[in-house]
Design goal:
Blueprint: H1 9-31, H2 35-53, H3 57-77, H4 79-90, H5 101-118, E1 122-126, E2 140-145, H6 148-155, E3 165-169, E4 172-178, H7 194-205, E5 209-213, E6 220-224, E7 227-229, H8 234-244
Parallel strand pairs: 1-3
Antiparallel strand pairs: 1-5, 2-4, 3-4, 5-6, 6-7
């Protein structure tokens, strides 16, 4: 093979586009947590290549027969991750309409802080791109403008809707009393209740953000991408929500 002494502009463009595509692919897999899918597929391809290099005919033939089955099994096993991708393409951003983002979040934080002080248990889910209702059950439609009073009333003990999650879409409370999927493959602190497990679970299934107020201690926690951040102050809560929801103070 003969190599050129210098790169042409086509070579530079070719390498640049290849680098951009590879980087975008890595970001895509990280965003939708597809690393496990890639490990299975590349592991299978690596074993297949090894069988071909070492002339292992029986193993190579067997792997070739199982290729279609592997692809089908991968789709079945990793169905939640793949579903989240397709849903995000058709979903809407949490702040797709014109209104004060910061003002809405401040109202929600005001309600959360009050419920924390009074030890009123609460679970508030901020929908982003992936529709939360597709992986939840028992939701009661609300479709009301956000206000601290309405949120506190919903979660007040013994009210009909207090025992589930509230879903926030934009500047509205979309629904309440939602039963969310519980977390999978996570080691739990024995003190964590169902609300915390549901908060982790919904952020494993979707790209939502979930805020939990503990009924026992009044502590505030936030779940993001299956990770739980506990015992947050009002300022820490505000900082996380502003960052994750891309809100500026002057919005």
């Amino acid at each position: 093979m003969i190599f050129k002494n210098s790169l042409s502009w086509r070579d530079i463009l070719d390498l640049t586009l290849l680098t951009v595509l590879f980087y975008a692919f890595l970001i895509f897999t990280a965003k939708y947590r597809l690393q496990k899918v890639l490990i299975v597929i590349f592991g299978f391809l690596g074993l297949w290549s090894l069988a071909d290099i070492l002339k292992l005919q029986a193993l190579g033939w067997l792997l070739k027969q199982f290729w279609t089955i592997l692809l089908f099994s991968t789709i079945v096993v990793f169905q939640p991750e793949l579903r989240r991708i397709f849903q995000s393409f058709s979903g809407r951003s949490i702040f797709s309409q014109r209104y004060s983002k910061a003002k809405v979040i401040k109202k929600i934080i005001k309600a959360i802080v009050y419920m924390s002080e009074k030890q009123i248990g609460a679970l508030i889910v901020f929908e982003r791109n992936v529709p939360v209702e597709t992986v939840s059950e028992g939701c009661v439609k609300i479709d009301g403008l956000i206000s601290p009073e309405l949120l506190i009333t919903i979660f007040y003990p013994l009210t009909p809707l207090h025992d589930g999650a509230v879903i926030i879409k934009g500047n509205r409370i979309a629904c309440a009393s939602c039963v969310l999927p519980l977390a999978k493959e996570v080691e739990f602190d024995a003190k964590l209740g169902t609300r915390h497990r549901a908060a982790i679970g919904i952020t494993q299934e979707t790209d939502a953000i979930a805020v939990v107020v503990s009924e026992e201690t009044g502590s505030i926690s936030v779940a993001i991408n299956g990770n739980l951040f506990r015992n947050l102050s009002e300022e820490e809560l505000k900082e996380i929500l502003y960052k994750e929801l891309s809100i500026e103070e002057n919005d």
